[in-house]
Amino acid sequence: EEADWGAEVCRARFAESGALSVVLAATTTNRDRLWQMRKRARGALGRLAPNYYVHDITVPRHTLPAVLAHVEAIGRKYGLRLATYLHAGDGNLHPNILFDAREPGVFERVLAAGAEILRLAVQVGGTLSGEHGIGLEKRDYLSLVFDEADLEAMRKVRRAFDPAGRFNPDKVLPQPGICREVRPGVKGRVPEGKPAAQVSLEG
Questions:
Q1: Distinct helix (H) and strand (E) counts, the chain
Q2: Which of the two residues, 203 and 90, has the higher pLDDT score?
Q3: 58 — phi, psi (to 5°)?
Q4: What are the residues whose beta carbons fall under 8 Å from the beta carbon of 12, sequence distance 6 or more?
Q5: Nearest CA-CA partner of 129 in 91, 81, 73, 167
Q6: pLDDT digits (tens, 9 = 90+) for 31-40
Q7: What is the domain extent for residue 28?
Q8: Which residue has the higher pLDDT, 193 or 163?
Q9: Number of structural domains found in the chain
Q10: CATH number, residue 125
Q11: Helix%, strand%, coil% for the chain, nearest 5
């Protein structure tokens, strides 16, 4: 009953927001079709652009409308098209930056847009990754979320299991002194003294 109530609330909200159609996956056939569409989403991006750069951020669910709008604004700022799909239930977004690698200078714009998307996630109280991990790509942005004491504690745990540094060397944790995203006044998840709910998404 609770699920049915939630579905009807969603249907009403979608209709109020101008949805062209709303289909409830009330049967096995409908559920299978819904999952099929979701699984084909990434392949469909190839019809929009020859290349894409997928991001994986997670934000508080109540910020989703504003974050989605701001992600689109970031794309416009850099002259890039974005296609975003998400796991709305847990606030996990996958903004895909679409581009053509043959275009001169496009990589710089793609990376700059991606960096702004990561900063946006942290500013609203979210995090850099929901399911894809940190690896090399986001390593130097961890200082947006953790201060140096936090990072050093993680390095100590890592050294306890891997004193020779042989397991995925240089991945996940930034090396001391090379974090490119350290900003004065940033401690923890949001700017010091500024709760997540007060971080502006404008401009």
A1: 6, 6
A2: 90
A3: -130, 135
A4: none
A5: 91
A6: 898 888 878 8
A7: 1-39
A8: 163
A9: 2
A10: 3.30.70.2740
A11: 45, 15, 40
